[in-house]
Amino acid sequence: MTKSKPLVRLTLALAGLAAAACLQPASPALAQSDEPGCRPDMAALRLPIQRANLAKDEVRLTFAGHATFLIETPGGVKVATDYNDYVRPQVTPDIATMNKAHSTHNSRNPDPAIKQVLPGWDPTGAGPAKHDVTMGDLRVRNVPTNIRSYSGSTDFDGNSIFVFEIGELCIAHLGHLHHPLEPGHLRALGRVDVVLFPVDGSYTLDQEGMLDVLKSLQARVMIPMHFFGGGTLNRFLARSQDLWPVERREQPVITVTKAGLPAKPTVIVLPGN
Fold first, then answer.
1. pLDDT band, residue 51 (cuts 50/70/90)
2. What is the pLDDT of residue 273?
3. 227 has which bridge partners?
4. 153 to each of 9, 32, 72, 158, how far by Cα in Å?
5. Mean pLDDT over residues 232-258, rounded?
6. Alpha-carbon distance values, 198 to 109, 173, 181, 233, 248 (Å)
7. What is the domain partition of the chain in residue ranges?
8. 211 with 240: CB under 8 angstroms?
9. Which stretches within 44-151 are classed as H helix?
10. Are 99 and 121 in contact (CB under 8 A)?
11. Where is the signal peptide, in residue numbers (predicted)?
12. CA 128 to each of CA 124, 143, 155, 235, 263: distance values in angstroms, whole numbers, following the listed order
């Protein structure tokens, strides 16, 4: 069937907008390598979100794509993790956390309606970022880690693991983790019920190292992120299949409660990349 001229013009206009978004230059101070950035399949994950009220012990997580999750509390507080200019949830968060490693983990133009923007590094270079913010029924704090710099040397305190405490639940987002966790990191994190972790195995910590991190955390729910296509994810799942059960969900949304956590640590895969 031949497209009408108005439809053709609309299709071309949308394609042009998508291409322009992908061609935005990365900030030299923030983008550190050629990690895949804006891609059509990532942009396509900006799904419309319809919200229902949460019970007092429920927390909702929506995987927007790459390393960005929308976390919603029973009191209505919304957080976007690794908030950036490419992949964003469809609602404006109250709090946005960001990390330094690449432009797909931070924003040069955060929505001015966001109440708190928390960079996981100190932009002044004075030392580690220090955040401990309470908003409504949510507490957000960070545990600094290191990253590799442009030259391959260590950029100390360039990443943060952000910890979200909501009622009795503790959720940790590992960000762009580049190295194993040391005893000091584990003490600072405390008990973790849900962990959101990268599995690409190259830009972040290698997959075997990530398995060791997960073993040390012993979170009941482990949700992979930061994978570039199903092949990378499946390689990680092949490595982990003898350690933990895997549940694949059809929707990018999961609601968790402390009482409803699996009896044993479980990998839960949400669709995305």
1. low
2. 65
3. none
4. 49, 12, 37, 12
5. 96
6. 24, 9, 14, 10, 17
7. 55-269
8. yes
9. none
10. yes
11. 1-31
12. 10, 9, 11, 33, 36
97, 106 contact by CB (below 8 A): no
Say if residues 240 and 246 touch (Cβ distance below 8 Å).
yes
Residue 30, pLDDT > 50, answer: no
Question: How many CA atoms, within 13 angstroms, populate the side-chain half-sphere of residue 250?
Answer: 0
Taken as a whole, the chain contains a residue count of: 273
pTM: 0.81
Residue 67 tokens, joined: 């390393």
Residue, of 114 and 6, whose pLDDT is higher: 114
* Beta strand segments in 66-137, E: 68-72, 78-80, 95-98, 116-119, 132-135
At which residue do the structure tokens 């044993």 appear?
264
Asked whether 125 and 143 are in contact (CB, 8 A), the reply is: no
Edge-to-edge strands, sheet with 138-148: 132-135, 138-148, 154-166, 169-173, 194-198, 221-225, 266-269, 246-248
The reported pLDDT for the residue numbered 198 is: 95
170 neighbors 190 (Cβ within 8 angstroms): yes
CB 148 within 8 A of CB 183: no
pLDDT at 202: 84
User: Which option is the CATH number for 55-269: 3.40.50.10790, 3.40.630.30, 3.60.15.10, 3.40.190.10?
Assistant: 3.60.15.10
Q: Report how far apart, in Å, the C-alpha atoms of 200 and of each of 35, 48, 75, 107, 124 are.
A: 10, 27, 34, 21, 29
Rounded Cα distance, 98 and 83, in Å: 5
Furthest CA-CA distance within the chain: 64
Distance between CA atoms of 146 and 176, rounded to whole angstroms? 9
